[in-house]
Specification:
single chain; 237 residues; alpha/beta; D-Maltodextrin-Binding Protein, domain 2; four-stranded mixed beta sheet; 9 helices; 63% helix
Length: 237
């Protein structure tokens, strides 16, 4: 049984190198397709991010405590500000538009809460939400700094440890961690892409070429044929 499987295995390997189409789909096409695919994904992502950054958004404010937050936000996001009274029907603007975001402020005792209404389906709306969160963090630091000033303190007074890091890796080796992470995925896709084509050729291709009938007529078990072809797909793929 194993001897027959090895014969089938060798036959398939010989037929592989005779077929130029199989060599093209197995070796050349994945080498061209995969880098192009990743470059296209990277270009598309950067292009969408650039468009989102250049979009002029409509940001609504509810119960805005002061004008400091809009000033902070204007340095991070292009937007047209408008004010709304609290009404559930008003939030339909967020659902129907990809550039409308509403920020609702509420003050409980001494604590200020902010709720952001955005559309998760839209990349632009998600981008605006992330920028608003960043602006809210800066606004929080500003409020904290004002509160500490009344006690003759600053934010630096609360930082008891100054942390810094120094990268001692050679300059030519810096940034290779991204390649180390992506390389296994590229190899995995390369293996599957090649194996799928080989699997189709060694099964359906046999019938098209008319070479399947002679194999089945010979005194070789179906198990040996299948085992030999599986070994071939595993090796060539």
């Amino acid at each position: 049984m194993l001897k027959d499987s090895i014969i089938i295995f060798k036959k398939e390997l010989k037929s592989l190198f005779k077929d130029r189409r199989s060599i093209f789909f197995l070796i050349i096409l994945p080498l061209v397709l995969m880098p192009g695919l990743f470059l296209t994904i990277g270009y598309t992502a950067s292009s969408q991010e650039k468009k989102a950054a250049e979009t002029v958004y409509r940001v609504g404010f509810i119960n805005l405590p002061d004008e400091k937050f809009p000033e902070i936000l204007s340095k991070r996001l292009l937007y047209e500000g408008f004010y709304k009274s609290f009404n559930t029907s008003d939030f339909s603007d967020v659902t129907s538009s990809d550039r409308t975001v509403i920020v609702e402020f509420n003050k409980n005792d001494e604590k200020l809460t902010a709720k952001i209404y955005y559309n998760s389906v839209s990349n632009k709306s998600k981008y605006a939400m992330q920028v608003i969160v960043s602006a809210l963090n800066a606004y929080e630091k500003l409020l904290l700094s004002d509160k500490l000033r009344s006690y003759s303190l600053t934010l630096d007074d609360l930082r008891l440890i100054d942390i810094s890091s120094v990268d001692m890796a050679p300059k030519e080796a810096q940034g290779t961690d991204f390649l180390a992470v992506m390389l296994p995925y590229m190899i995995l896709i390369y293996i599957f892409a090649g194996s799928m084509n080989i699997g189709l050729v060694t099964t359906a291709g046999e019938k098209e070429r008319g070479t399947l009938s002679p194999i089945l007529v010979n005194q070789v078990s179906r198990t040996s044929i299948a085992t030999g072809k599986v070994f071939y797909v595993m090796t060539a793929g």
